[in-house]
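Thread: "does anyone have the structure for this chain?"

Original post by V.I.:
We have the sequence but no experimental structure in hand. Need at least a predicted one for the grant figures.
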Amino acid sequence: MGKKIAVVMPAYNAARTLERTVREIPAIVDEIILCDDGSVDDTVRIARKLGIPHVLLHPQNRGYGANQKTLYAKALELHADIVVMLHPDYQYTPKLIVPMVHMVATGLYPVVLGSRILGGGALKGGMPMYKYVANRLLTLVQNMLMGQKLSEYHTGYRCFDAEVLRSIDFERNSDGFVFDNELLAQVCYAGYAIGEVSCPTRYFKEASSIDFWRSVRYGMGVLRVSVLYFLTRLGLIKAAFLAGRVRRTQLG
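Reply from O.Q.:
Generated one for you, tokens below.
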């Protein structure tokens, strides 16, 4: 393939699922980078036992977005050509890394998302009904405000051409869960196309998930991002997270 592929794993109390996840990462991956965000279980010990070559530490919990910032910065430092974010909670199958990477490596799309909605995998995999309904409603509103046609914006399974990450200022984004949506807004604002693949998902006791009230706060944050994006595109304001570098590059 001729591309250096890095898998980045934002970890928080992932001791019970980390090994199952790592064992299924395909051989095409060149680098595995895990950042532990102040876990209180054995995540770090198990990561080192598994021989993960890059285990980064946040001594205190800094948030999901802050975790990703550390991971993406490290992947770019290692000169990765393609960066895949995979949660270590075994909710998403690592077996999709190959087709997602192929879509990026061949120039079909610079960004590919693993969608739980395509193919009806979300409810089959045990996604709570309130989360499914919220996902669909938020996605509908986001598509209208952002001019996109994605099946969902809320998946944690993502594959990027590294040039995309270099051309946007992801350090400007939130340190919390809304980071994911701010990053996708930056990708759209820079003019990059986003592809999707159908991704089965698993909801089980050990899989990470946010509770109802944190989900509500997340939903409000998502709506805020979409409105700010819409107003920025109209030229009425300049949202802070969209004000950084936008260095649209020719990919291929």
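V.I.: this helps a lot. The chain is about 40% helix and 15% strand.
O.Q.: and The two ends are 13 Å apart (CA to CA).
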